[in-house]
Amino acid sequence: MAQAATFVWEGTDKSGRKTKGEISSTTPAVAKAELRKQGINAQKVRKKSASRGLSFGGNIKPADVALFTRQMATMMRAGVPLVQAFEIVADGSDKPKLKEMILAVRTDVAGGNSFASAIRRHPNHFDDLFCNLVDAGEQSGALETMLDRIATYKEKTESLKAKVKKAMTYPIAVLVVAFIVSGILLIKVVPQFESVFAGFGAELPVFTQFVIGLSEAAQAHWFKAIIILAAFIVGLVQVRKRSKGFRDWIDRMALKMPIVGNIIEKSSVARFARTLSTTFAAGVPLVEALNSVAGSTGNSVYTNAVYRIRDDVATGQQLNFSMRSTGVFPNMVNQMVAIGEESGALDTMLDKSASYYEEQVDNAVDNLTALMEPIIMSVLGVLIGGLIIAMYLPIFQLGAVVGG
Length: 404
Known about the structure:
Layout: E1 5-12, E2 18-25, H1 28-37, E3 41-47, H2 62-77, H3 82-91, H4 96-110, H5 115-119, H6 128-140, H7 143-197, H8 206-242, H9 244-256, H10 260-281, H11 286-294, H12 300-314, H13 319-326, H14 331-343, H15 346-403
Antiparallel strand pairs: 1-2, 1-3
Helix pairs in contact: 2-3, 2-7, 3-4, 6-7, 7-8, 7-10, 7-15, 8-9, 8-15, 9-10, 10-11, 10-15, 11-12, 12-13, 13-14, 14-15
């Protein structure tokens, strides 16, 4: 079977207007046939040439999908026809891959396919939840309202992810820099002092001897250490990717970490509430909505809990009672869900819960950053300052002996 490739085409649509785009197919002939089914008379079809050099920042990110959704919602609210909206958004994109995807979706829609079926051909960028919500918007005749709701959901979700990522990466980045600086001092600077100390003819302080020993070990084994560290990180990533049990264990341990665990817990609750609010407000049945929500929590502890809730709700249990039985959701969320079920405003209560916990995550990240700064400065001071003091101790001692 021939491998699919991307073809660039030019032709005319049903109304005779010139148009162009890209399509994924096996051969130019098959591409022409597929375009003909969509009402497009393709005059030129050629295989897209590979981009030259490296394309930094060219990959489509979730934030790009959120922006695309917001732009489409704005265009449709302004009364711009769907196919034309795709063209306008694609023209405004500075990412070739994103533009290619938008034009591919536009081609499918122009050929008579629904928006939902067109984006389902791009599962790497549009998950089942996104596609189901678009489908619900098309079925109800309120696509622009649904796109606006999806855009808000995606924007808040990506903002939440960015905050959690900031909380995790800031201290790690600083410690990595400290490790690199310490390594350079041990491998390049300490040996210079060691050659000076060799002419002293006196016994060096214990601390200085310890640092010199570290320096000698670093000089002899630094390359091995880097290889072992790289192999360990790659192995950890591969095991996490392949082993569900290991992923679950890491997620459980992450929730037990001081400070950071609290941020992860609140972000998972916020994602649960935000996603369920969006899907339920779109008219998706609760059991089906919970199925979509499970994969969006970002932590396997909450994913497994949502699946248990889904099974309980399918048997007739109330949502708030099932949430309580899992033991992982805060009482405030359980009470808000109970009020929402009783009043018939479940989506509103979930939306308020999501907003509250998103704000909690924001505050927790700010507090963590403020707390980590003095701790990180202390660690850097001990590491770098300790090495410098160890090197100058013999000089201080020599000065004291000469002065005495």
